[in-house]
Amino acid sequence: MSIKATSFCAVPVAMAAIVCFTVPVAASAADFGPGSDRFFIAAGWFPSTFSTKVRVDNKNLDLGDKIDLENDLGLKDSSNAFYGAFTWRFFKRHRLAVSYYDFHRGNSGQAEGDLEIGDKIIPVGAKVNTTFDVNIFPIAYSYSFVQGEKVEFSGSIGVHWSDIRFGVNGKGFLGEGGEVNEFDDSAKASASAPLPLLGLGVDYWITPRWLAIADGQYFQLSLSDDTFDYKGSLTNIRIATEYVPYKGLGIGIAYNWFAMDVDVEDNKWYGRLEYEYYGPQIYATYRFK
Known about the structure:
CATH class: Mainly Beta
Oligomer: single chain
CATH architecture: Beta Barrel
Number of strands: 13
CATH superfamily: OMPT-like
Number of helices: 1
Distance between the termini: 40 Å
Shape: elongated
Radius of gyration: 22 Å
CATH topology: Lipocalin
Low-confidence stretches: 1-29
Strand content: over 45%
Structural class: mainly beta
Mean pLDDT: 81
Strand order of the largest sheet: 1-3-4-7-8-9-10-11-12-13
């Protein structure tokens, strides 16, 4: 397991926390509300819990083994990740939002049974090194159907770019016919595609400096071209609250649940992916008019 950019995101979170507790609330705090922020930036820490099941078929389309990465290969079911977001309100009711999530996990263990991954077979007893990395880059346009004094209700459409890389390396010794041979082989699979998304969101300004947020995206996938084919579903739900104590600088706390359940036919991955993560987010924010 690796923790990427945690030290980077801890700095703005710590700064925002210091501001929250050391700057008087009345000290030149800017008032915000629906449609008032032209730019929004967030960066922080996302400790996540995972559930991951994969199947990699071989080139003849014979089914590979369905592998639970946490239970079968020992990947830890938790990891820390960097979370970042940027929103540009280019007209009062129109916004363009970009987010970024970066997950890296790895583990060394022993195969408790034969594992068929693509056209490779990792034998029982082999020492197994496993990696599973995911970069997620959603881009969405949203339009605010309702924009009142405290409430902003919007719909969104966009793409959810996912870059997924799965690798297994097995090492050991095989005995056959009285001979013992060294075994060292690897299996890899990767998939990358812009998956469409549709969503709804609501922002409620409890006070001019305290905001509650709820949004979700869902799409039933059936997407294909000359190089890939995805069929399944994608769901993302997030609730958050943000506080802006000093001018545009603030801090936010959120809870995010994401699930993707798809059949994949990519040039580097034929099979299935069931991927879920969830957990809290702690982040610093900056918004300005």
